[in-house]
Amino acid sequence: MSDLNEVQPVQPVSRWSDAFKKMATSQVLTSILAIVVALVLGAILIAAADGDVQRSWGYLFSRPGDFFSALGGSVGSAYSALFQGAVFNISSSYTVGQFFAPLTKTIAYSVPLIFAGLALGMGFRAGLFNIGAQGQIILGATLCGYLGFTLNLPAGIHLVICLLGAFIGGALWGFIPGILKAKTGANEVIVTIMLNSIAIFLLGWLLTLQAFRSPGSNMPVSPRMAPTAQFPHFFGTTIDLGFVLAILAAILVWWIMERSTLGFRIRAVGENPDAARTAGMNVSMSYVWVMIIAGGLAGLAATSQLLSSPAQQLNIDIASTFGFDAITVALLGRSKPLGTVLAGLLFGGLRAGGYLMQSSTGTPIDIILVLQSVIVLLIAAPPLVRAIFRLPDPERERKAEARAHARAAKKEVAAS
Amino acid sequence: MKLELRQVTKKFGDFLANDAIDLVVEPGQIHALLGENGAGKSTLMNVLYGLYGADGGEILLDGTPVRFSGPGDAMAAGIGMVHQHFMLVPVFTVAENVVLGHEPTGPFGMIKVDEARKIVKEISDKFGFDVDPDALVGDLPVGVQQRVEIIKALSRSAEILILDEPTAVLTPQETDELMDIMRQLKLSGTSIVFITHKLREVQEVADTIIVIRHGKVVGNALPTASQSELASLMVGRNVDLGVKDRADIDGEVVLEVVNLDLADEEGRILLENLCFTVSSGEILAIAGVQGNGQTELAEVLIGLRKPTAGSIVLHRHDEEGNRRSDDLAGKSVKKFLAAGIGFVPEDRGKDGIVHSFSIAENLVLDQISSPPFSSAGALNIRAIASNASDRVEEFDVRAGSSNAAVGTLSGGNQQKVVVARELSRDLSVLVASQPTRGVDIGSIEFIHSRIIQQRNKGTAVVIVSTELNEVTSLADRIAVMYDGHFVGIVPPDTERHVLGLMMAGVGYEDALAQAGHSPNPSEKAQGGDDV
Amino acid sequence: MSLMNTQPDLDHELEHEVLRPRSWKMPVALTIFTLVALAGFCLTVDSGVESKVAIVTGNSLIGTINLVLPSFSALLVFTVAMAALAGISWWATATRTVKIGGVRIGSWVGILFGTFFVSAFLLWAVAGRGVALQFTSLLSGALFLSIPLIFGAMAGTVCERVGVINVSIEGQLLAGAFLAAVLGAITQNPWIGLLAAPIAGALIGLLLALFAVRYWVDHIIVGVVLNVLVGGLTSYLFSTVLTRNPDVFAMSVKLPIWKIPILSEIPVLGPVLFAQSVLVYIMYLAVIILQIMLFKSKWGLRLRSCGEHPRAADTVGIKVNRTRVVNTILGGAIAGLGGAYFTLANGLAFGKHMSGGRGYIALAAMILGGWKPKGALVAALLFGFADNLQNSLGVVGVEVPSQFMLMAPYLVTIFAVAGLVGRVHPPAMEGKPYKG
Q1: A residues 67-126 near C, CB within 8 Å?
Q2: Which chain A residues touch C401 with a CB distance below 8 Å?
Q3: What is the DSSP letter of A210?
């Protein structure tokens, strides 16, 4: 969406090398190559932990074939399970529904990542390093959950109230670092890290209270959410309203950032707070607003956990690691809404596939964390990716271009 | 030690910062490297000091070619440099700063603090610097910090000392003291390369003068050369920045500042009891050595800082033509802008533009919330784009497209974007701080003419400038600032020498009297002290 | 001439002293806490109940002291002492007295007050309980629990002083814990595990340095992502290699506990400070060496110059980026050593995510400690104390929601960075890449 603005004007490609250079230096290529490197590293890990591979390594030189077939076998089966768990199920394609069932799971896992990723991306563009999505999700879940299992309301209204609750809970937890930064200059990184932990303890304490306890249960879990507070499903699949809301949120965030005065201010503050202040913008209030909106969006990430069916319960692990994963989502998506949606789907897919991979090939899902973090590290360091694949340096190209421009401009001046 | 540069060339991309420069530094002499801002003086010295690698040519010390891969090599060879922006760690003591990089150490690498103190003391006493080795550098006045820099260089037994624009941050008195120090160093056998663009200083201390323009040596001169000779060598052509048509000051008072005080959080007084008025169609220029409160005054006049006392009254005519007055003191920047005050900040890169934003976006940066650029919180992309193409043409901003990021433009063009933005509104008052700093001559002339044009349209203009030339060529009245207060407000044809004395804190009457008794009457002559 | 120039500045300095705004935060806060103690502790204990405290002196001559105090009277004594300190604070603020006898009033009044308040809280909490509060184990446990926090905070201090923000302390602790456990288990030798721990941390430090210094990636991004990476990697290896070979890896080794002769005989302090795991003694050394070396040695001076003004360092021939890389790796190694706490010092096998966010608390301790080893030590000890308090009170049977105790370090840190507990200043150029 916003990326459309960045597409270079189409020019006739004179030579293939030009086309190659452009592709080689693009951000998309960096992202794809980063994913490739991550998968290769993942493959090494899978192979290294595989018993057959380890055994055949012992007699590598006498029968190298064994080693390579074991290697191919372990990596191949793990990655094919990962793919089948994330996209579609090749082996059991009886019905269309079953065929695409993994994809719908991917979408379901991606919803919280998209919401929280949008939230963090917005903060990044305002120059705020909001590490606090985790806490914001927890607070959103707390309020959303409480409203969901205590209130007795008609179906539609109850759902809306719960959504509002999630937004407000998250927004409150975003407001605290925002206002502290605005009023006292407190570093938002530290405050949000601290608030993440406080949120966990707060929810932990609430779950010890009678008001939050599932009746008759010794476990710290809440009662189940009311059926009136559940997302409707589409076409008998597991895709529910949550995904639609996430896409709508992405579009809304795009509009705010690119087409509204609020977004203009947020971007200006993020890029150069001094210039923004000099231009009459209220920098402190921008921080507060960004943190409120971002906190609210992160809070909404909790809804996919709580408002899906079958009826869910509020528990201490409700936020899973979505808040931290969302950091990687926002970074991979380069803080832009379209990128965030795509990155959210990718990581949602890794998660969905990871569960299948774990159950069918015994490869622990923890490897997904490794893949994610390697991808993000590499994307943040394009020179490293270029060094790995020996690609040309776009900076150098751009500088050469700028020099050519400067030459042309000088000639122009001289001529006039 | 004799230093020779032969055909030293340094390129940044295709830009030739230094073009085959030859330079010989004889032992025990003061060489002035004279040139305008951006002529390539600092680049040359950074090459010499090992901070930049040269693209061609060679450096010889006592006839042997040397290669410096970093400042460490240059220092080891006996070259020291006092940078324009001090290379001192503010939270370290004087002694720590001086020994950093060549620490006297005992067992386990522990620093011998007594020895470090002794090093400082010895040099300090030798030249009468009076520097406390245990003081935190951040607490010291700039003049003293500069001495710490010199001690730092001398403690590394520098035989050649490079001083990069050392007087830019000094008061006239501190400048005189520095000149004394330079003479003393010379007597003790140190050679000095003195980078400056101030003719008076050059004539006062230099043994030889090398003039650099556009990265080339354009001439050598002796200090006996006349100022106009040096100036034309340096600038290349006779630049007449003087604007002859002075406005008649009979417009109505637009801006009235009364008893303005400003103190920082720690209670230090930054501005003290400022009172002045600016009328419609008048330019009030505020002169002074950098750091005497001008920056703060400009920031108060746009609401970036809240005065601790006093009022900033704006007199305007409303729609019905009635004259109304508002006190803006303590209001937000937004209110100041809405009241029709335009602001060109001193540091455009920091306060004036958003580098990654397009030219079009930067041109509406402070008007984004008002029509036609937005309505009901939504941007009007079309209006922003058409505004951009108009302004780019009107102000001759040289750029590929108005969608290009402002950060890719040259300094002059960036400044034009800022000026274009501010002058595209209806202004009652324009506050322009250092409007032409770091801008090429062509852009200077253009920006000056636009400011004059704005004044002639009836805007009250406040110019803050440390360049006396700019002050005298634009001003209808000159206010001289010193240590947070006005020394006096004087007519534009006041002699430069008198202005110089006032910039050092001497009152107008006394300055006139002193100028009259000046032992060196030739200095009063016209001809651009500080071209 | 020079006199003329410096005179006005002196005047300003004087005015500045006189005009220094008075902050009433401290006396107000102390008064509030005194009232809390009065209303919350003194007035809520039943009359006639007693508070029992057992103090193991560790000295064979003195043995264990069993204190049985009348709760109300004891609490009243403490509350009156607190009120007196609050009074001193009011007086000092009103008269702008900063120091008495060369010692900052703010510091010693604060420390004494804090000690009294916590003591009062403890006496109140155990009032009327049959079981005595084990005072000595409360302190020694607190010290033990703060090991990873202290090592982590030292690592953070070294890295940030050189200009690299280290959010990956958590990952470095975890990596240290992992490698220490694995190598310790394979060799069945805790000392080899102890050597391995800093190597694992240093590797993570190397990655941090590579991305932050070499590739100019935002330091916080690298730190957060490295934490995810280490968490994922160790969990993956735990679930595969470690769980598949329980005969090797479920076996744990433990670092010995050393009683230092003579020193451990010092009443109370002996058993608290000198009858501890070997790791604690290494920690003492680390803190003392760092505190001295950072501020008094050539290494420290150069390191700090890279964090404060890298360009100045460069112009005197210090290789800024090399200094940053080397010391970031060193920082990682220190944190890695702290990781040995989780496995070797506790005698446990590795468990997934067993560092449990201690790295973040260490970060908080470093900030509260003002980027100084000494300060970080005190802050980390406080956090360790808060952590251990809930254990000790749990034994006595006091039902204070543990969550609030666990929250305390985080809350205090937020107050600190918001400037409510005194301003803290990070190194000027931390997190900024040096591009030469």
Answers
A1: none
A2: 205, 208
A3: G
* pLDDT digit string, tens, across residues A19-36: 555 555 577 888 889 989
| Residue A330 within a domain | yes
Q: Does C221 touch chain A (CB under 8 A)?
A: yes
Q: Does A199 share its domain with A239?
A: yes
Chain B hits for A277, Cβ within 8 Å:
304, 333, 351
In which band, very low, low, confident or very high, does the pLDDT at A414 lie, cut at 50, 70 and 90? very low
Bridge-partner residues for B341, per DSSP? Answer: B429
Question: Over the stretch C379-399, which tens digit does the pLDDT of each residue have?
Answer: 899 889 888 887 777 777 766
Q: Where are the domains of chain B?
A: 3-235, 239-340+426-531, 352-425
CA distance A316 to A298: 17
Amino acid at the residue B352: G
For domain B239-340+426-531, the CATH superfamily is P-loop containing nucleotide triphosphate hydrolases (3.40.50.300)
Please give the average per-residue pLDDT across A104-122, as a whole number.
Answer: 92
By the 10 Å C-beta count (0-12 exposed, 13-18 middle, 19+ buried), B60 is classed as middle
Residue C132 in any domain: the answer is no
- Which chains have 3 or more CB–CB distances shorter than 8 Å to chain B? A, C
Cα(A394)–Cα(C380) distance, integer angstroms: 46
Task: Determine the straight-line distance between the first and last CA of chain C, rounded to whole angstroms.
Answer: 39
Instruction: Tell me, yes or no, if A285 comes closer than 8 A to chain B by beta carbon.
Output: no
Is the CB of B352 less than 8 angstroms away from the CB of A259?
A: no
Chain C nearest-CA residue for B106: C297
Domain check: are A250 and A334 in the same one?
yes
The domain of A82 spans 23-86+363-393
CATH of the domain at C303: 1.10.3470
When divided into structural domains, chain C yields a total of 1
Amino acid at A63: R
CATH of domain B3-235: 3.40.50.300
- Cβ of B14 and A407 within 8 Å? yes
Q: Is the pLDDT of residue C4 over 50?
A: no
How large is the ipTM?
A: 0.83
For the segment A260-271, what is each residue's pLDDT rounded down to a tens digit? 999 999 999 999
User: Cβ of B453: how many Cβ atoms within 10 Å?
Assistant: 11
Residues A341 and A373 occupy one common structural domain:
no
In a domain, A266, yes or no: yes
Indicate the pTM of the whole model: 0.83
Residues of B with CB under 8 A from a CB of A: 13-15, 302, 304, 332-334, 336-338, 343, 345, 350-357, 361, 365-366, 368-369, 374, 377-379, 381, 398, 400, 408
